[in-house]
Amino acid sequence: MKKSSKIILSVLVVVIVLCVVYRLVNRAPSASLESNAQMEEIIESSGCMACHSANPKLPFYAGFPIAGKLVKEDVRLGYRSFDMIPMVEALKKGEKINEVDLAKVEKVIADGTMPLAKYYLVHWGSSLTDTETQMALAWVKSQRAASYPNLLADKQWANEAVRPVQDSVPVDMRKVILGKMLFHDVRLSADNTVSCSSCHGLNTGGVDNKAFSEGVGGQHGGVNAPTVYNALYNFVQFWDGRAATLADQAAGPPLNPVEMACKSFDEICDKLKADAAFSKAFTEVYPDGINEANITNAIQEFERTLLTPNSRFDKYLKGDKTAMNAEEVSGYDLFKKYNCATCHVGENMGGQSYELMGIKADYFADRGTELTVEDNGRYKETKNERDRHRFKVPGLRNIALTAPYFHDATQATLEDAVVAMAKYEVGVNLSQQEVKQIVAFLKTLTGEYEGKLLTNANDSKK
Protein backbone atom coordinates (compact mmCIF):
# COMPACT_ATOMS: atom_id res chain seq x y z
CA MET A 1 0.00 0.00 0.00
CA LYS A 2 1.29 3.44 -0.91
CA LYS A 3 2.26 5.82 1.85
CA SER A 4 -0.41 8.34 0.80
CA SER A 5 -3.08 5.65 0.92
CA LYS A 6 -1.98 4.65 4.42
CA ILE A 7 -2.25 8.25 5.57
CA ILE A 8 -5.73 8.58 4.09
CA LEU A 9 -6.79 5.29 5.69
CA SER A 10 -5.40 6.40 9.06
CA VAL A 11 -7.28 9.66 8.87
CA LEU A 12 -10.49 7.80 8.01
CA VAL A 13 -10.02 5.48 10.96
CA VAL A 14 -9.45 8.44 13.30
CA VAL A 15 -12.55 10.19 11.97
CA ILE A 16 -14.64 7.05 12.40
CA VAL A 17 -13.39 6.55 15.95
CA LEU A 18 -14.07 10.19 16.80
CA CYS A 19 -17.55 9.94 15.33
CA VAL A 20 -18.23 6.85 17.43
CA VAL A 21 -16.93 8.60 20.54
CA TYR A 22 -19.03 11.66 19.72
CA ARG A 23 -22.13 9.50 19.38
CA LEU A 24 -21.41 7.79 22.68
CA VAL A 25 -20.73 10.88 24.77
CA ASN A 26 -22.98 13.42 23.07
CA ARG A 27 -26.49 12.14 23.46
CA ALA A 28 -29.49 14.37 23.85
CA PRO A 29 -31.55 14.01 27.03
CA SER A 30 -34.45 11.59 26.86
CA ALA A 31 -37.55 13.05 25.26
CA SER A 32 -39.55 11.53 28.11
CA LEU A 33 -37.91 13.83 30.65
CA GLU A 34 -39.66 16.97 31.86
CA SER A 35 -38.26 20.07 30.10
CA ASN A 36 -36.49 21.41 33.21
CA ALA A 37 -34.73 18.09 33.65
CA GLN A 38 -33.73 18.12 29.98
CA MET A 39 -32.27 21.59 30.38
CA GLU A 40 -30.34 20.58 33.48
CA GLU A 41 -28.72 17.75 31.53
CA ILE A 42 -27.90 20.04 28.61
CA ILE A 43 -26.26 22.61 30.89
CA GLU A 44 -24.25 19.91 32.61
CA SER A 45 -23.10 18.10 29.46
CA SER A 46 -22.27 21.28 27.54
CA GLY A 47 -19.94 22.53 30.25
CA CYS A 48 -21.67 25.90 30.76
CA MET A 49 -20.68 26.09 34.41
CA ALA A 50 -17.00 25.76 33.49
CA CYS A 51 -17.04 29.43 32.54
CA HIS A 52 -20.21 30.90 33.99
CA SER A 53 -19.77 30.44 37.73
CA ALA A 54 -17.62 31.87 40.49
CA ASN A 55 -15.84 28.60 41.29
CA PRO A 56 -15.64 26.59 38.08
CA LYS A 57 -14.15 23.13 37.78
CA LEU A 58 -11.31 23.75 35.38
CA PRO A 59 -10.35 21.04 32.85
CA PHE A 60 -7.05 19.19 33.24
CA TYR A 61 -5.36 21.22 30.51
CA ALA A 62 -5.98 24.48 32.41
CA GLY A 63 -2.55 23.88 33.91
CA PHE A 64 -0.81 23.80 30.54
CA PRO A 65 1.17 26.96 29.66
CA ILE A 66 -0.63 27.99 26.47
CA ALA A 67 -3.97 26.18 26.68
CA GLY A 68 -4.30 27.09 30.35
CA LYS A 69 -3.99 30.79 29.64
CA LEU A 70 -6.74 30.61 27.03
CA VAL A 71 -9.00 28.61 29.32
CA LYS A 72 -8.60 31.00 32.23
CA GLU A 73 -9.33 33.98 29.99
CA ASP A 74 -12.49 32.28 28.72
CA VAL A 75 -13.56 31.64 32.30
CA ARG A 76 -12.90 35.26 33.26
CA LEU A 77 -14.87 36.65 30.34
CA GLY A 78 -17.67 34.12 30.69
CA TYR A 79 -18.23 34.83 34.37
CA ARG A 80 -18.07 38.60 34.02
CA SER A 81 -20.76 38.54 31.33
CA PHE A 82 -23.11 35.91 32.78
CA ASP A 83 -23.23 34.22 36.19
CA MET A 84 -25.44 31.20 35.59
CA ILE A 85 -25.60 30.02 39.21
CA PRO A 86 -28.87 31.86 40.07
CA MET A 87 -30.51 30.50 36.93
CA VAL A 88 -29.39 26.93 37.60
CA GLU A 89 -30.53 27.10 41.22
CA ALA A 90 -33.93 28.42 40.14
CA LEU A 91 -34.13 25.71 37.49
CA LYS A 92 -33.48 22.95 39.99
CA LYS A 93 -36.10 24.34 42.37
CA GLY A 94 -38.67 24.85 39.63
CA GLU A 95 -38.71 28.59 40.34
CA LYS A 96 -39.19 31.52 37.98
CA ILE A 97 -36.14 32.16 35.79
CA ASN A 98 -34.97 35.74 35.33
CA GLU A 99 -36.03 36.90 31.87
CA VAL A 100 -32.60 38.34 31.12
CA ASP A 101 -31.08 34.91 31.76
CA LEU A 102 -33.63 33.37 29.42
CA ALA A 103 -32.80 35.89 26.72
CA LYS A 104 -29.06 35.34 27.06
CA VAL A 105 -29.37 31.57 26.85
CA GLU A 106 -31.73 31.77 23.90
CA LYS A 107 -29.48 34.13 21.93
CA VAL A 108 -26.22 32.17 22.19
CA ILE A 109 -27.91 28.86 21.45
CA ALA A 110 -29.84 30.23 18.48
CA ASP A 111 -26.64 31.82 17.14
CA GLY A 112 -24.59 28.70 17.81
CA THR A 113 -21.95 30.79 19.60
CA MET A 114 -22.05 28.65 22.74
CA PRO A 115 -20.48 26.36 23.79
CA LEU A 116 -17.21 27.75 22.43
CA ALA A 117 -15.76 25.66 19.60
CA LYS A 118 -12.36 25.48 21.29
CA TYR A 119 -14.04 24.04 24.37
CA TYR A 120 -15.87 21.21 22.66
CA LEU A 121 -12.89 20.33 20.48
CA VAL A 122 -11.51 18.80 23.67
CA HIS A 123 -14.79 17.98 25.40
CA TRP A 124 -16.68 16.17 22.67
CA GLY A 125 -19.89 15.92 24.66
CA SER A 126 -20.21 19.65 25.11
CA SER A 127 -21.28 20.58 21.58
CA LEU A 128 -25.04 20.76 21.18
CA THR A 129 -26.77 18.36 18.85
CA ASP A 130 -29.69 19.60 16.77
CA THR A 131 -32.03 17.84 19.18
CA GLU A 132 -30.43 19.51 22.21
CA THR A 133 -30.61 22.88 20.51
CA GLN A 134 -34.30 22.46 19.82
CA MET A 135 -34.91 21.24 23.39
CA ALA A 136 -33.10 24.24 24.88
CA LEU A 137 -34.89 26.77 22.69
CA ALA A 138 -38.24 25.14 23.43
CA TRP A 139 -37.45 25.32 27.15
CA VAL A 140 -36.73 29.05 26.91
CA LYS A 141 -39.97 29.68 25.06
CA SER A 142 -42.02 27.65 27.52
CA GLN A 143 -40.44 29.43 30.49
CA ARG A 144 -41.08 32.83 28.94
CA ALA A 145 -44.66 31.98 28.05
CA ALA A 146 -45.39 30.74 31.57
CA SER A 147 -43.58 33.43 33.57
CA TYR A 148 -43.75 36.45 31.26
CA PRO A 149 -46.90 36.10 29.18
CA ASN A 150 -47.04 38.57 26.30
CA LEU A 151 -50.79 38.99 26.17
CA LEU A 152 -50.84 42.33 24.37
CA ALA A 153 -48.63 41.31 21.45
CA ASP A 154 -49.69 39.90 18.13
CA LYS A 155 -49.25 36.14 17.78
CA GLN A 156 -46.12 36.68 15.67
CA TRP A 157 -44.40 38.44 18.58
CA ALA A 158 -45.94 36.51 21.46
CA ASN A 159 -42.59 35.07 22.53
CA GLU A 160 -40.39 38.13 22.03
CA ALA A 161 -38.10 39.12 24.88
CA VAL A 162 -39.77 42.56 24.87
CA ARG A 163 -43.43 43.34 25.49
CA PRO A 164 -45.77 46.28 24.95
CA VAL A 165 -46.32 48.66 27.86
CA GLN A 166 -49.66 48.16 29.61
CA ASP A 167 -52.30 50.86 29.35
CA SER A 168 -52.68 50.85 33.12
CA VAL A 169 -52.28 48.79 36.28
CA PRO A 170 -54.62 48.55 39.29
CA VAL A 171 -54.17 51.49 41.69
CA ASP A 172 -55.97 53.25 44.52
CA MET A 173 -56.93 56.55 42.90
CA ARG A 174 -57.24 58.34 46.24
CA LYS A 175 -53.62 57.52 46.97
CA VAL A 176 -52.64 58.44 43.42
CA ILE A 177 -54.09 61.93 43.85
CA LEU A 178 -52.19 62.44 47.09
CA GLY A 179 -49.04 61.00 45.58
CA LYS A 180 -49.24 63.34 42.61
CA MET A 181 -49.52 66.31 44.95
CA LEU A 182 -46.53 65.12 46.96
CA PHE A 183 -44.50 64.41 43.82
CA HIS A 184 -44.78 68.10 42.94
CA ASP A 185 -44.53 69.42 46.52
CA VAL A 186 -41.39 71.42 47.34
CA ARG A 187 -42.07 70.97 51.05
CA LEU A 188 -40.31 67.64 50.78
CA SER A 189 -37.07 69.63 50.59
CA ALA A 190 -35.36 71.49 53.44
CA ASP A 191 -35.65 74.97 51.91
CA ASN A 192 -38.90 74.42 49.99
CA THR A 193 -37.23 74.77 46.58
CA VAL A 194 -36.96 71.21 45.24
CA SER A 195 -39.65 68.61 44.52
CA CYS A 196 -39.51 65.15 42.95
CA SER A 197 -40.60 66.72 39.67
CA SER A 198 -37.63 69.10 39.75
CA CYS A 199 -35.37 66.22 38.68
CA HIS A 200 -38.05 64.03 37.09
CA GLY A 201 -40.07 66.40 34.94
CA LEU A 202 -43.11 64.77 33.43
CA ASN A 203 -42.85 67.16 30.48
CA THR A 204 -39.20 66.27 29.86
CA GLY A 205 -39.27 62.49 29.56
CA GLY A 206 -39.30 61.90 33.32
CA VAL A 207 -35.82 63.44 33.74
CA ASP A 208 -34.34 66.96 33.77
CA ASN A 209 -31.96 66.53 30.82
CA LYS A 210 -29.04 67.64 32.96
CA ALA A 211 -25.84 65.69 33.46
CA PHE A 212 -26.36 65.83 37.23
CA SER A 213 -29.47 67.17 38.89
CA GLU A 214 -29.45 70.29 41.01
CA GLY A 215 -30.55 69.99 44.61
CA VAL A 216 -30.91 72.31 47.59
CA GLY A 217 -28.45 75.21 47.54
CA GLY A 218 -27.41 74.53 43.97
CA GLN A 219 -25.61 71.30 44.89
CA HIS A 220 -25.20 68.64 42.21
CA GLY A 221 -25.43 64.89 42.57
CA GLY A 222 -22.87 62.52 41.13
CA VAL A 223 -25.06 60.36 38.91
CA ASN A 224 -27.45 61.03 36.04
CA ALA A 225 -31.11 60.98 37.10
CA PRO A 226 -32.99 58.04 35.56
CA THR A 227 -36.48 58.51 34.19
CA VAL A 228 -39.46 58.04 36.46
CA TYR A 229 -41.64 56.85 33.57
CA ASN A 230 -42.26 53.08 33.57
CA ALA A 231 -40.10 52.70 36.70
CA LEU A 232 -42.84 50.40 37.95
CA TYR A 233 -41.34 47.68 35.78
CA ASN A 234 -37.80 47.90 37.22
CA PHE A 235 -36.82 45.03 39.49
CA VAL A 236 -35.02 47.52 41.77
CA GLN A 237 -34.60 51.29 41.77
CA PHE A 238 -31.55 53.54 41.38
CA TRP A 239 -28.51 52.72 39.24
CA ASP A 240 -26.99 50.76 42.12
CA GLY A 241 -30.21 49.00 43.08
CA ARG A 242 -30.22 50.25 46.66
CA ALA A 243 -34.02 50.62 46.72
CA ALA A 244 -36.16 47.52 46.42
CA THR A 245 -39.43 49.35 45.71
CA LEU A 246 -40.72 52.67 44.40
CA ALA A 247 -41.61 53.59 47.98
CA ASP A 248 -38.05 52.87 49.12
CA GLN A 249 -36.79 55.02 46.27
CA ALA A 250 -39.11 57.88 47.22
CA ALA A 251 -37.68 57.85 50.73
CA GLY A 252 -34.12 58.49 49.53
CA PRO A 253 -33.92 61.97 47.96
CA PRO A 254 -35.72 63.88 50.77
CA LEU A 255 -32.97 62.91 53.21
CA ASN A 256 -30.07 63.11 50.80
CA PRO A 257 -27.96 66.13 51.81
CA VAL A 258 -27.17 66.93 48.18
CA GLU A 259 -30.74 66.56 46.91
CA MET A 260 -33.56 67.66 49.23
CA ALA A 261 -31.41 67.87 52.36
CA CYS A 262 -34.03 67.29 55.08
CA LYS A 263 -32.70 66.08 58.42
CA SER A 264 -35.53 63.59 58.89
CA PHE A 265 -39.02 62.79 57.72
CA ASP A 266 -40.33 64.34 60.93
CA GLU A 267 -39.26 67.68 59.49
CA ILE A 268 -41.33 67.00 56.35
CA CYS A 269 -44.31 65.68 58.27
CA ASP A 270 -44.44 68.74 60.50
CA LYS A 271 -44.62 71.05 57.48
CA LEU A 272 -47.37 69.00 55.87
CA LYS A 273 -49.37 68.72 59.09
CA ALA A 274 -49.33 72.51 59.40
CA ASP A 275 -51.41 72.60 56.20
CA ALA A 276 -54.88 71.91 57.61
CA ALA A 277 -56.56 71.23 54.27
CA PHE A 278 -53.82 68.86 53.11
CA SER A 279 -53.69 67.13 56.48
CA LYS A 280 -57.46 66.53 56.40
CA ALA A 281 -57.34 65.13 52.87
CA PHE A 282 -54.39 62.92 53.74
CA THR A 283 -55.99 61.48 56.87
CA GLU A 284 -59.12 60.56 54.95
CA VAL A 285 -56.96 58.24 52.84
CA TYR A 286 -54.47 57.23 55.53
CA PRO A 287 -56.29 57.12 58.91
CA ASP A 288 -53.00 56.87 60.83
CA GLY A 289 -51.99 60.22 59.42
CA ILE A 290 -48.94 61.80 57.85
CA ASN A 291 -45.76 59.77 58.29
CA GLU A 292 -42.87 58.54 56.20
CA ALA A 293 -44.45 55.22 55.28
CA ASN A 294 -47.68 56.82 54.07
CA ILE A 295 -45.93 59.63 52.20
CA THR A 296 -43.72 57.23 50.26
CA ASN A 297 -46.61 54.82 49.73
CA ALA A 298 -48.68 57.59 48.14
CA ILE A 299 -45.80 58.65 45.88
CA GLN A 300 -45.31 55.02 44.90
CA GLU A 301 -48.98 54.68 44.00
CA PHE A 302 -48.77 57.77 41.79
CA GLU A 303 -45.59 56.54 40.09
CA ARG A 304 -47.37 53.27 39.27
CA THR A 305 -49.53 55.34 36.91
CA LEU A 306 -46.54 56.78 35.03
CA LEU A 307 -46.81 54.28 32.20
CA THR A 308 -46.25 55.28 28.58
CA PRO A 309 -48.09 52.85 26.29
CA ASN A 310 -48.96 53.13 22.62
CA SER A 311 -45.53 53.89 21.24
CA ARG A 312 -45.17 53.13 17.54
CA PHE A 313 -43.11 50.09 18.54
CA ASP A 314 -45.93 48.89 20.81
CA LYS A 315 -48.38 49.27 17.96
CA TYR A 316 -46.02 47.29 15.75
CA LEU A 317 -45.81 44.49 18.32
CA LYS A 318 -49.58 44.48 18.56
CA GLY A 319 -49.82 43.73 14.85
CA ASP A 320 -49.84 47.10 13.08
CA LYS A 321 -47.14 46.56 10.46
CA THR A 322 -47.52 50.14 9.22
CA ALA A 323 -46.49 51.59 12.60
CA MET A 324 -42.78 51.29 11.76
CA ASN A 325 -41.02 51.94 8.47
CA ALA A 326 -38.38 49.71 6.85
CA GLU A 327 -35.45 51.56 8.41
CA GLU A 328 -36.94 51.24 11.90
CA VAL A 329 -37.70 47.55 11.45
CA SER A 330 -34.11 47.02 10.28
CA GLY A 331 -32.99 48.83 13.41
CA TYR A 332 -35.00 46.43 15.55
CA ASP A 333 -33.46 43.49 13.73
CA LEU A 334 -29.99 44.90 14.48
CA PHE A 335 -31.04 45.54 18.08
CA LYS A 336 -31.65 41.82 18.42
CA LYS A 337 -28.68 40.74 16.28
CA TYR A 338 -26.20 42.64 18.45
CA ASN A 339 -27.53 41.24 21.74
CA CYS A 340 -29.23 44.45 22.90
CA ALA A 341 -32.45 42.50 23.47
CA THR A 342 -30.73 40.12 25.89
CA CYS A 343 -30.47 42.81 28.60
CA HIS A 344 -33.11 45.31 27.45
CA VAL A 345 -36.06 42.98 27.96
CA GLY A 346 -39.62 43.17 29.21
CA GLU A 347 -42.10 46.04 29.03
CA ASN A 348 -39.53 48.66 30.00
CA MET A 349 -36.86 47.11 27.76
CA GLY A 350 -34.43 47.05 30.66
CA GLY A 351 -34.38 47.34 34.42
CA GLN A 352 -34.30 43.57 35.04
CA SER A 353 -30.64 42.92 35.82
CA TYR A 354 -27.28 44.39 36.77
CA GLU A 355 -24.74 44.39 33.98
CA LEU A 356 -21.06 45.28 33.79
CA MET A 357 -20.18 48.56 32.14
CA GLY A 358 -17.39 47.46 29.86
CA ILE A 359 -17.75 43.74 29.13
CA LYS A 360 -15.68 43.84 25.95
CA ALA A 361 -13.46 46.88 26.57
CA ASP A 362 -12.43 49.05 29.51
CA TYR A 363 -14.95 51.88 29.44
CA PHE A 364 -13.52 53.71 32.44
CA ALA A 365 -9.94 53.60 31.18
CA ASP A 366 -11.05 54.99 27.83
CA ARG A 367 -13.16 57.66 29.50
CA GLY A 368 -9.97 59.18 30.78
CA THR A 369 -11.37 60.86 33.88
CA GLU A 370 -10.94 60.05 37.54
CA LEU A 371 -13.15 57.32 38.94
CA THR A 372 -15.94 58.45 41.26
CA VAL A 373 -17.83 56.68 44.02
CA GLU A 374 -20.82 56.41 41.68
CA ASP A 375 -18.70 54.56 39.11
CA ASN A 376 -18.61 51.61 41.50
CA GLY A 377 -22.26 50.89 40.75
CA ARG A 378 -23.73 47.92 42.57
CA TYR A 379 -20.44 47.42 44.44
CA LYS A 380 -21.35 50.41 46.61
CA GLU A 381 -24.05 48.27 48.21
CA THR A 382 -22.62 44.75 48.18
CA LYS A 383 -18.85 45.25 48.48
CA ASN A 384 -18.62 42.19 46.23
CA GLU A 385 -15.77 42.78 43.78
CA ARG A 386 -17.72 41.22 40.92
CA ASP A 387 -20.29 44.00 41.31
CA ARG A 388 -17.81 46.82 40.73
CA HIS A 389 -18.92 48.87 37.69
CA ARG A 390 -22.20 46.93 37.45
CA PHE A 391 -25.37 48.95 37.09
CA LYS A 392 -29.05 48.31 36.81
CA VAL A 393 -29.74 48.23 33.10
CA PRO A 394 -31.73 51.36 32.20
CA GLY A 395 -35.07 51.03 30.46
CA LEU A 396 -35.14 52.25 26.88
CA ARG A 397 -38.70 53.54 26.79
CA ASN A 398 -38.79 57.21 25.71
CA ILE A 399 -35.01 57.09 25.38
CA ALA A 400 -35.03 59.75 22.65
CA LEU A 401 -36.23 62.27 25.26
CA THR A 402 -33.83 61.54 28.11
CA ALA A 403 -30.36 62.73 27.03
CA PRO A 404 -27.63 62.84 28.23
CA TYR A 405 -27.00 59.12 28.62
CA PHE A 406 -25.27 56.60 30.93
CA HIS A 407 -24.89 56.88 34.69
CA ASP A 408 -22.11 59.44 34.21
CA ALA A 409 -23.94 61.42 31.50
CA THR A 410 -20.96 61.18 29.15
CA GLN A 411 -22.96 60.50 25.99
CA ALA A 412 -24.64 63.65 24.68
CA THR A 413 -26.67 62.06 21.90
CA LEU A 414 -28.49 58.85 21.20
CA GLU A 415 -26.03 58.16 18.37
CA ASP A 416 -23.12 58.50 20.81
CA ALA A 417 -24.78 56.11 23.27
CA VAL A 418 -25.46 53.47 20.61
CA VAL A 419 -21.88 53.54 19.34
CA ALA A 420 -20.47 53.30 22.87
CA MET A 421 -22.76 50.46 23.95
CA ALA A 422 -21.89 48.44 20.87
CA LYS A 423 -18.18 48.93 21.51
CA TYR A 424 -18.06 48.30 25.25
CA GLU A 425 -20.86 45.77 25.74
CA VAL A 426 -20.87 43.83 22.47
CA GLY A 427 -17.39 44.38 21.07
CA VAL A 428 -18.68 45.65 17.73
CA ASN A 429 -17.84 48.78 15.75
CA LEU A 430 -21.12 49.67 14.08
CA SER A 431 -21.24 51.18 10.63
CA GLN A 432 -22.84 54.60 10.20
CA GLN A 433 -25.78 52.93 8.51
CA GLU A 434 -26.28 50.53 11.40
CA VAL A 435 -26.15 53.37 13.92
CA LYS A 436 -28.71 55.29 11.89
CA GLN A 437 -31.05 52.31 11.76
CA ILE A 438 -30.77 51.47 15.47
CA VAL A 439 -31.36 55.10 16.45
CA ALA A 440 -34.37 55.21 14.15
CA PHE A 441 -35.75 52.17 15.96
CA LEU A 442 -35.08 53.63 19.40
CA LYS A 443 -37.06 56.72 18.47
CA THR A 444 -40.14 54.53 17.99
CA LEU A 445 -40.10 53.77 21.73
CA THR A 446 -41.58 57.14 22.69
CA GLY A 447 -44.98 56.48 24.20
CA GLU A 448 -48.05 58.32 25.40
CA TYR A 449 -48.87 59.72 28.83
CA GLU A 450 -52.45 60.61 29.67
CA GLY A 451 -53.40 59.96 26.05
CA LYS A 452 -50.82 62.30 24.50
CA LEU A 453 -47.54 61.44 22.83
CA LEU A 454 -44.65 62.47 25.04
CA THR A 455 -42.48 65.31 23.84
CA ASN A 456 -39.64 67.15 25.49
CA ALA A 457 -40.46 70.69 26.62
CA ASN A 458 -36.76 71.53 26.51
CA ASP A 459 -36.69 70.83 22.78
CA SER A 460 -39.26 73.54 22.07
CA LYS A 461 -37.06 76.06 23.86
CA LYS A 462 -34.06 75.44 21.63
From TrEMBL:
Under InterPro entries, the record lists: Cyt_c-like_dom (IPR009056), Cyt_c-like_dom_sf (IPR036909), Cytochrome_c_Peroxidase/MauG (IPR051395), Di-haem_cyt_c_peroxidsae (IPR004852), Haem-bd (IPR025992)
What Gene3D superfamilies does the database record attribute to this sequence?
Answer: Cytochrome c-like domain
- Where does this protein reside within or beyond the cell? Cell envelope
For this UniProt record, the keywords arranged alphabetically read as follows: Heme, Iron, Metal-binding, Oxidoreductase, Peroxidase
By what name is this protein known? Cytochrome-c peroxidase
Start and end of every Cytochrome c domain?
A: 34-144, 326-446
Natural source organism? Bacteroides mediterraneensis
Stored SMART domains:
Haem_bd (SM01235)
Pfam families to which the protein is assigned, alphabetical: CCP_MauG, Cytochrom_C, Haem_bd
A GO MF term:
peroxidase activity
Q: What is the lineage of its organism?
A: Bacteria, Pseudomonadati, Bacteroidota, Bacteroidia, Bacteroidales
